[in-house]
Amino acid sequence: MEILIRPDADQASRLAARIVARTVRQNPRAVLGFATGQTPLPLYRELVRMHREDGLDFSAVTSFNLDEYVGLAPSHPQSYHAAMWANLFGRINIAPERVFIPDGLAVDIPAACRAYEESIRKAGGIDVQILGIGTDGHIGFNEPTSSLASRTRIKTLTAQTRRDNAEFFGGEYKVPHHVITMGLGTILEARTCLLLAFGKTKAAAVAKTVEGPVTAMVPASVLQLHQRAILLLDEDAASELERADYYRFVDANKPDWQKP
Ligand code: GLP
After folding, report:
1. Would you state the CATH architecture of domain 2-253?
2. 38, 156, 224, 231 - which has most CB atoms within 10 Å?
3. Exposure pattern of 225-236 as b/e (b: 16+ CB <10 Å)?
């Protein structure tokens, strides 16, 4: 794992945007995986700025989102469809036919999940997968005890995750119980995983992810098995890492060709 600690979320997000932009400039037909939640919002703002001011071109890019709530129409304000179009897709020149987000209204959910996996495969796999992390260590919506080999499927949210999201829905009772999420096995196939974590509330989950055992109890820890997993943290999210000084030293002493 590559652990990059920056003073604040903005600086970490700008670095994430540079990594994404480099991928798109090297391959205009790149396949990007996007996440929702509050964490990636500064990254999306920076990508929008790069599109508007620096001509970053998304017209040939394909995108896959990690997850969606079951039962929410794309027009529902709390759906991940709505969030992605409001925060990113509606503000860059991505082609709508190349945007893939799990369908929360699918009638045959297992068939829709199989089709989602097939679409990722047909697109040639995901080049860079953006990830956030839940306070319980989930990525996508792969809650603790998710199979480390799981594929896109329906999951049931934990009480903790529903509480974490209650404020956005105006009450915990309004947060759906079920979601569709890419699996941990699906995520592991992305060529690069870029996990962003900001704030004290994420510090314990980050420490377990990086320095704890690989365990289904901390789904993000499966990234220890990935060949190119980059964690971009602010100081607060890094505050419980035992070896933070070592990660800082590695980061500060990279040879030029290895700099992120
Ligand atoms: C939800 C999303 C995750 C996200 C997590 C953390 O569970 N499905 O993809 O990483 O929330 O959200 P936030 O970034 O708002 O803390």
Report:
1. 3-Layer(aba) Sandwich (3.40)
2. 231
3. ebeebbbbbbbb
